[in-house]
C-alpha cells in the first residue's frame, strides 16, 4: 500500500503540498500548484487547460487511491483534500535521498577509520601526533563526530518531503514561455 501511494510522483507532490499547507486544500488550488511544479512554471502562469488535465487525474485516480489508503481525506462533495493523522506513519518513507548523495554510513565508517588511525598513531608516540594528549584527542574526536552528526541531522530535515517550497524532482520555473510536455503518472 505504501509503495502504491508513494510510487507516483503526483501523489508525492500531493503529500508535499498538503504538508506545507496544514489545512484542507481545494482540489483546484492543488491541481494548479502541481501543474506548476510539473511544467516548471509559476502557479499563476498555468493555463486552465493544463490545470484541468491534472485536476481530472487527481479527481479520478490519485486522490481516491490516497483516500482508500487513509493517507488523505478526500471530500468529493466539497472538493477539498486534507492529510489524515495516518499520514505521519509515512514519514519514514518520505525522506528524499538525492541520487548523487554520499551514503552516510560510508562517510561515518571512513571518518571513524581516519580518526582511529590518528589516535593509534598518537598512542604509538609518532611525532608530530604526540603534541596532544589522549584526552585532547578524545575531545577532538567526540567534537568532530558531534558536528558531523548535527550537520547530517539538519541536512536530512531539509530533504524531508514537505519541508521545502518545491518538491524534489519538480522542474524549476522557466524564464521563457516555451512549451513543456510531461507524461501523466
UniProtKB/TrEMBL annotation:
Transmembrane intervals: 107-129, 135-154
InterPro entries (alphabetical): DUF7344
Entry keyword set: Membrane, Transmembrane, Transmembrane helix
Domain of life: Archaea
Domain DUF7344: 3-82
Pfam families from the UniProt entry: DUF7344
The protein's name in its UniProt record: Putative trancriptional regulator, ArsR family
Amino acid at each position: 500500500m505504501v509503495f502504491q501511494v508513494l510510487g507516483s510522483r503526483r501523489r508525492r507532490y500531493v503529500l508535499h503540498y498538503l504538508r506545507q499547507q496544514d489545512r484542507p486544500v481545494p482540489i483546484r488550488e492543488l491541481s494548479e500548484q502541481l501543474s506548476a511544479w510539473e511544467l516548471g512554471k509559476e502557479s499563476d502562469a498555468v493555463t486552465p487547460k493544463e490545470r484541468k488535465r491534472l485536476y481530472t487525474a487527481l479527481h479520478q485516480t490519485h486522490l481516491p487511491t490516497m483516500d482508500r489508503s487513509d493517507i488523505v481525506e478526500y471530500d468529493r462533495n466539497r472538493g477539498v483534500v486534507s492529510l489524515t493523522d495516518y499520514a505521519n506513519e509515512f514519514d519514514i518513507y518520505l525522506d528524499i535521498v538525492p541520487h548523487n548523495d554520499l551514503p552516510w554510513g560510508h562517510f561515518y565508517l571512513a571518518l571513524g577509520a581516519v580518526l582511529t588511525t590518528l589516535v593509534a598513531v598518537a598512542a604509538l608516540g609518532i611525532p608530530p601526533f604526540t603534541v596532544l594528549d589522549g584526552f585532547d584527542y578524545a575531545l577532538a574526536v567526540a567534537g568532530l563526530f558531534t558536528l558531523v552528526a548535527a550537520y547530517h541531522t539538519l541536512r536530512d530535515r531539509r530533504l524531508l518531503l514537505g519541508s521545502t517550497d518545491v518538491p524534489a524532482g519538480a522542474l524549476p520555473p522557466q524564464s521563457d514561455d516555451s512549451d513543456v510536455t510531461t507524461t501523466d503518472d
